[in-house]
Design a protein that fits this description.
This protein has about 325 residues and is mainly beta. The chain is about 5% helix and about 35% strand. The strands form three sheets. Strands 2, 3, 11, 14, 15, 16, 18, 19 and 20 form a nine-stranded antiparallel β-sheet that branches. A six-stranded antiparallel beta barrel has the order 5-6-7-10-9-8. Strands 13-12-4-17 form a four-stranded mixed β-sheet, with no helix packed on it. The longest helix is centred in the last third of the chain and has 11 residues.
Length: about 325
């Protein structure tokens, strides 16, 4: 059975009595989730669903194809255990293209050298080296290198569970495996909550247009009642998926947060409903790491994982 990445961490930063964080893995929407589907050929064909077999289970995540066509950018927690050690036994990247789904196996896994498994500490960024180049039809993406992300509105994409902000994600009605997109606004960085790696995170909340569910405004931080029906939140197999600014990857979905008390609209902890928060790993802060990894020459030959029936079975599990 595939597991959702859903570890819990508890810390007590500035202004908050309790702040719980879970690994991000779904997109919940302000409106009907079926109105946020990604259509092939619209610039997001390089965003992938990931099925990752690790020594501690089978996990679903998301990722995005980098410019070379040989690397997927994702979250470190997708490819490591909860101590930060890479423990992948095999993986498959699912490209949803106009001509159908294509699957490429992973051949190598790298996490940031300072990643220790702690979401609060940051450094939640990693790469998957593909066993062969990605399909020619898949979009390739550059990384965002400017430091002006705050106040801007990224396009958020992922393959996770979905649902609405009014009720939270619904795994039965909207299972993982279908790409969706929407928008939000980067309101804060880690300094707002006293997190250790303050400049390595970009945070946004899930607004419904009311002051009571404006999460950051409710806490005396940035006041912003949201983007109406455009607004979405990454929550439980969007982990590792991209947030785009000007077509470049500015954020990697890392974790969602809040403890169920106001401004959360329904009192349920971490179900990606209105009033909850999410955090992206800030890609511009790790540009040098990404450049170093992707500049390594590719080996002339790579042992690929078995395909055929095994991949079809993996895809069937991924689509559940």
């Amino acid at each position: 059975m595939k597991r959702r990445c859903h570890a819990l961490a508890v810390f007590t930063p500035l202004l908050l009595a309790l702040y719980t964080a879970s690994i991000a893995s779904a997109i919940t929407t302000a409106g009907n989730p079926d109105d946020y589907l990604v259509t092939p050929g619209t610039g997001f064909d390089g965003v992938v669903g990931l099925s990752i077999s690790r020594t501690d289970g089978l996990f679903g995540c998301s990722g995005a194809l980098l410019s070379s066509g040989n690397f997927i950018l994702t979250a470190a927690h997708c490819i490591s255990d909860f101590s930060g050690n890479v423990n992948v036994t095999s993986s498959s990247a699912f490209f949803t293209l106009a001509g159908g789904t294509q699957v490429v196996s992973g051949a190598g896994y790298i996490v940031h050298p300072r990643w220790d498994g702690s979401l609060a500490n940051g450094f939640d960024i990693g790469l998957i080296r593909l066993g062969r180049p990605a399909p020619a039809a898949a979009d390739r993406y550059t990384i965002y290198r400017a430091s002006n992300e705050l106040g801007r509105t990224p396009t958020i994409v992922g393959y996770g569970f979905s649902g609405t902000g009014a009720t939270g994600y619904d795994a039965a009605a909207f299972p993982e495996g279908t790409p969706r997109k929407g928008m939000n606004r980067y309101d804060e960085n880690g300094s707002a909550f006293g997190l250790p790696n303050q400049q390595g995170l970009l945070l946004y909340d899930f607004d419904d247009g009311t002051a009571i569910h404006d999460g950051f405004g409710f806490l005396g931080l940035t006041r912003d009642r949201g983007l109406g029906l455009k607004e979405v939140l990454a929550a439980p197999a969007d982990s590792g998926g991209p947030s785009f600014l000007n077509g470049a990857i500015a954020g990697v979905h890392s974790f969602g947060a809040w403890d169920g008390s106001p401004p959360d609209n329904d009192g349920i902890v971490l179900n990606a409903s209105f009033g909850e928060f999410a955090a992206d790993t800030r890609v511009s802060a790790y540009a040098n790491f990404i450049d170093r990894v992707t500049a390594v020459p590719e080996p002339s030959s790579v042992a690929l994982a078995a395909m055929g029936t095994a991949l079809l079975l993996a895809y069937a599990r991924f689509r559940r």
